[in-house]
Each structure stands twice: as structure tokens, then as C-alpha cells.
Amino acid sequence: MPAVTGNAIPIALLLGAALWLGRPILGQQGGDDEALKRELHQLGEVAESLNQALPSLTCQETAVSERIVRGKVKQHVAFTASMRAVRTPGGPLHESFTVTTVNGKPPSRKAARYPYYTAGAFDSAMVYFVPAHQACYRFSLSGRRLDFETAPDATSHPQCRDDGLHGFALLDADGNVTHTERTISADASENFRLVPFAAIDFAPVELNGQVFRLTHHLVSEYPQGDSVGRFEATYSECKLFSVSVTIGPPTRVDPADTPPPH
Fold first, then answer.
1. What is d(CA 15, CA 121) in angstroms, rounded to the nearest whole number?
2. Is 122 helix (H, G, I), strand (E, B) or coil?
3. What whole-number distance in Å separates Cα of residue 227 and Cα of residue 73?
4. Among 44-53, 91-100, 149-158, 244-253, where is mean pLDDT lowest?
5. Minimum mean pLDDT among 26-35, 64-73, 82-91, 107-116: which range?
């Protein structure tokens, strides 16, 4: 995908399925059907909680943005930021960030140029497992590894698209996802504005009394011509995002100083 640039910062959307609404359909399967059904049901509930119940949050972001040409790093920017993901009314989280350091120093007034940046790591990190999307992929379970790929008949379902995806998820003993990796086709990357490769490590975070499996570490890559954009970020200290308003002491206003109405 061509990077979307804002304030000289290339932005790439992360994950391989948009949030279309559709009736829940069980995807194509392989291996132990009953174990697979149980796992997909559990992951479906987790994915829905990220889409529907994950509140606005803020995290510390520690990241590296690079442009690599023929195996050599040509641009390297290490930065820290206060990242905010704010829930929009009836919609997804809107991510923004305030940079706190650039290459170990306070940010200057001149805006830094980041070779590559990837957004969308929180509410859509497990979008493949949303019940309505499970028909879009073919799943197979082997031990604690769940492989998935775009189903051959994906385009026959209105909520699906042919993204040429191949990926896998690693599960802990309780069936929670600890790691995912996925690649999509070059055409899908271009057409749907998605990074071709992304890998995510998850960690439990308690927000407002509920535990969510959130992105802890993200790596993404985006080939473009003879160069590769690479972004790596760790998210820590995640907590509820709130806006506070401070009301100061009352101040007497002289009516004579009040301008007349227009």
C-alpha cells in the first residue's frame, strides 16, 4: 500500500479485514473439529470484546521506525510517545500520539520525519477471529498453534474479501492468543491499504475491571521498490484514558467590562 502521509509521517493500517457486519458463520476447518470449534468460539468472544467493549486507553509507546535499502538501514528514528486510542461514538478506536523523545532527546520544534509508522494495533488486532469474519478464513488447529488462511470461497460471503492471507496464532494452555503473524498478498496490501506483514505479541491488561488481551509488541514491514519500511513498537503502562476538567475559584466579573451582545 502507498503510505498515507500526514505531517510527514507515513501511516499504514495494520490488519487484514475491515469490520463489516454480517451474520456469524463458522469458517472452514481442519483437524480436530470439536477442539477447533471450542477455540474459535473462545477467540470469537475475545475479538468481539476488543471491538465492542475495549474502552479508550493510553499507553507508553517505545518504537523504532526504519527505511532499509538493499539490506542497509538508510533512515533510523527511535522515539517514545504517549499513545492515545479513543473510542469514537459507534465506531473504532482513533489513535493519536504525542512524541516525548526522538533518538533519546526531547523533540525539537521542527517535526521529525518518520520513515514508516503502523496504526490499528488495538481494537482490530484479533479481527480475523470475530464470529462474523470466521467464514472468511480456513482454520486448522495443531496443538497450541492455530493456522488460518483466506478461504477459497471467501468472496461468496458478503462480509469477506480476497486478501490472500496466510497466518498463524500461538495459544497458551488456556487457549489465549500470545502471538500472531500474518502476511497478505501485494494486491490486497495495495487495494485495502494494509501492511503486507505484521507480527503481534499479546499481554493481559486490566481496564475498568475487565481483562483485555492487548497488543504488547508489534513488528510490521512494508516493501516498496528497492526499500523496506520497518516499524517495531512496544506498548506498556496501558491504562484508561480520561479527560479531566479543573474548575478554579470564582472570579467576579464587572458588568461594565462585558461586551454588548452582537
1. 8
2. coil
3. 9
4. 244-253
5. 26-35
Sheet containing strand 4-6, edge to edge, reads 4-6, 9-13, 117-119
Contacts of 3 (CB under 8 A, 6+ apart): 10, 11, 12, 116, 222, 224, 229
Compute the distance between CA of residue 30 and CA of residue 86 in angstroms, rounded to an integer. 38
Q: What distance in Å separates the CA atoms of residue 216 and residue 204, rounded to the nearest whole number?
A: 9
Give dist(CA 29, CA 35) in Å, integer: 11
Q: Residue 53 corresponds to which cell in the numbers above?
A: 467493549
Q: pLDDT tens-digit profile of 111-156?
A: 667 888 888 888 778 989 999 999 999 999 999 999 999 999 999 9
Among 10, 218, 57, 211, which residue's Cα sits nearest to residue 125? 218
